[in-house]
Amino acid sequence: ETALRDSFHQDLDKSFTVVLQPLHDTKTECLIGAECLMRWTLEGKPISPAEFIPIVESTGDINKLTLFTLSQIRKTVEHLQSEGMDCKHYMFAINISVVEILDVKFESKLLAALAQHNIDPKRIKLELTESALIDNFSYVNEVLVSLQSKGFTISIDDFGTGFSSLSYLCKLNFDEIKIDRSFVTNVVKDSKLQSVFNSIVSLAKNLDKPLVAEGVEDMEQMIYAKAKGVQYVQGYYYSKPLPIDAFVEYVLEDK
Ligand code: G
Ligand code: G
Ligand code: NA
Q: What range does the record give for the signal peptide (predicted)?
């Protein structure tokens, strides 16, 4: 872990990359954007986010990855535009750690980076994991309200895995629920998964929030999600997360 920590500081620009996983609308099947995921290769070996994100959080450097991700969104948009693609309506989802939100300068840093890269906050979804939202609830919620007022979409990630009380959902300011892939992959063949999936669907409907399903691996799962009224999907059925150039190719083919 210490070795990883030391390498992180030498490495940020050189060996971190952002990959983009396409997000599709279930009604039209059109591409609507992508989730941005960080990748780190150290001495030729990939290190999983599950391993490095906690380390980067603990060193106080997680915001650097977020700002780096925004620079890569700009790069993607410029690349798409240079290919003549109109991508003004695309949404880019980025993963935010609650550790970052607790920094009082979080919002101003985020807005400054977006201005620098000429990105409208209306095109950014901020994904926050459910479990992490419970601690520091009042403060985090205040920040979320402010971010929403600037145009950001707030998405609750890994929904259903946090064992959290449902009462916080009534108080939390968010825009969208992202159902965890553990309830999505295999849903078609497993009646227990269907029960959980359907409960989340009706919860989202009653709260009047759109749903995103991740981990959609085949057409049956996509059709299931669509039939249940899930608005957006991502997963291997459409594409794995792609490096920027490959994502641009994907967009060109999707057109
Ligand atoms: O690709 P997968 O293993 O790529 O990613 C697993 C998880 O790692 C994501 O769902 C997300 O929670 C986390 N993750 C990936 N990239 C980032 C990032 O840039 N910032 C934060 N905070 N988390 C990330
Ligand atoms: O934390 P989050 O759930 O956002 O991270 C997404 C993770 O899930 C990434 O590691 C990504 O590579 C992986 N992933 C994306 N699509 C699929 C899929 O269809 N099936 C499975 N098993 N994993 C996926
Ligand atoms: Na995510």
A: none
For the chain, give every domain's residue range: 2-158+234-254
CATH class of 2-158+234-254: alpha beta
Please give the structure tokens belonging to residue 76: 């993607």
Encoded tokens for 9: 């500081």
Helix axes 49-58, 62-82, angle to 10 degrees: 120
Q: What residues flank ion ligand 3 with Cβ within 5 A?
A: 95, 127, 157
In DSSP terms, which residues pair with 177 in a beta bridge? 156, 211
Q: What is the pLDDT of residue 11?
A: 61
CA of 35 to the centre of ligand 2 (A): 10
| Ligand 1 binding site (Cβ under 6 Å of any ligand atom) | 37-38, 48-49, 53, 62, 65, 69, 95-97
22 lines ligand 2 (CB under 6 A): no
Protein residue closest via CA to atom 19 of ligand 1: 38
Cα angle 89, 76, 62 (rounded to 5 degrees) comes to 100
Calculate mean pLDDT across residues 139-165.
91
The more confidently predicted of residues 168 and 236 is 236
Q: How far is the CA of 181 from the centre of ligand 2 (A)?
A: 7
Question: Which amino acid type is present at position 134?
Answer: I
End-to-end CA distance of the chain: 44
